[in-house]
Design goal:
By secondary structure, the chain is an alpha/beta fold. About 45% of the residues lie in helices and about 15% in strands. It has helices spanning about 15-25, 35-40, 40-50, 55-70, 90-100, 115-125, 140-150, 165-170, 175-185, 200-210, 220-225, 265-280; strands at about 5-10, 30, 80, 110-115, 130-135, 155-160, 190-195, 215. It has an eight-stranded parallel barrel with strand order 1-2-3-4-5-6-7-8, surrounded by six helices. Helix 1 (about 15-25) runs parallel beside helix 11 (about 220-225), helix 5 crosses helix 6 (about 115-125) and helix 9 runs parallel beside helix 10 (about 200-210). The termini are far apart. The chain binds erythose-4-phosphate.
Length: about 290
């Protein structure tokens, strides 16, 4: 297989899975994790099933152990580690977590949600040389806000548009990836598109065609890709979606991030679900 230009990350929370994918592909460029994926980690599941619910400190320590095991398995796209947040978590609190998590491994990217508080935390982070991945992005406007908020970053920031969750509500989620790529082609390249919530081989192939800089993909889909002998989209490839198309918007990337309307119901719901999955692993007193 010729190694694709687009970086491939494993979307998961189990180092064994990352190893398996690496054996299959010969490489893994990076990894993304999130609170739901960490709650599904086999060791954490075992602990919870045996009745040992974790304190929030223990949960952080387990998360740290997981990313420390994954870190040496992957390449320079790094390991994305997500801060814990719910609707009440402020920027300072997210930033404090991000600062700690960034010390866990040498190739960390800190994931903040694409909300006003998350973007404030990202701004603080990039000013201190902390690499960021802005997650739960569902619109071109949110991506424009990420671009504005991360100006001056030493290393490229990532923005993660969530394809599958837009498909789930009857939209063509891949349009958001396409639109952001088009918008960023007029920018200075300091934000890279990391296509996320990839649910099918067709999503993956279209990401290659759109030349997303990175895609994070569940092991299951990467295994399907390998089993088909690593197909790449040719000139005939046409991505088909039954979802409603999302039109491109002309946006001025040089505005301050606060100028963009970043409200998205799916971002709010995503935070709620991550918080619930995280809390389900904790003891009540934690
Ligand atoms: C990765 O950064 C995301 O957390 C992940 O791709 C979400 O995927 P899902 O919508 O399938 O949960």
């Amino acid at each position: 297989m010729t190694r694709p230009k687009m970086k491939l990350l494993v979307d998961g929370g189990d180092p064994q899975e990352t190893r398996r994918v690496k054996d299959l592909l010969g490489f893994v460029d990076g990894q993304t994790t999130n609170p739901s994926l960490i709650a599904k980690n086999p060791h954490i599941r075992e602990l919870v099933a045996s009745g040992h619910k974790l304190s929030s400190r223990e949960e952080m320590d387990e998360y740290k152990k997981i990313v420390k095991t994954i870190s040496p398995l992957v390449g320079d796209a790094g390991v994305s580690i997500e801060v814990f947040s719910d609707e009440k978590t402020g920027a300072q609190e997210m930033f404090a977590q991000g600062k700690e998590m960034f010390t866990w491994i040498s190739n960390a990217y800190i994931k903040y949600p694409c909300t006003a508080e998350g973007l404030r935390a990202a701004q603080m982070s990039v000013s201190q040389g902390i690499r960021v991945n802005i997650t739960l992005c569902f619109s071109q406007r949110q991506a424009a806000a990420v671009y504005a908020a991360t100006q001056g970053t030493k290393e490229p920031a990532y923005v993660s548009p969530f394809v599958g969750r837009l498909d789930d509500i009857g939209q063509n989620g891949m349009d958001v990836v396409k639109n952001i790529k088009r918008m960023f082609s007029k920018g200075d390249g300091h934000v890279l598109v990391l296509a996320a919530s990839i649910r099918s081989l067709e999503h993956l192939l279209y990401c290659f065609q759109l030349e997303a800089e990175l895609a994070t993909v569940p092991a299951k889909i990467l295994e399907q890709w390998a089993n088909k002998n690593f197909p790449m989209p040719d000139n005939q490839f046409q991505y088909k979606s039954s979802g409603k198309s999302i039109p491109y918007e002309e946006l001025d990337l040089n505005q301050p991030w606060e100028a963009f309307d970043i409200q998205q119901e799916l971002t709010r719901k995503g935070i709620e679900k991550f918080a619930a999955d995280y809390r389900a692993t904790l003891s009540r007193s934690a």
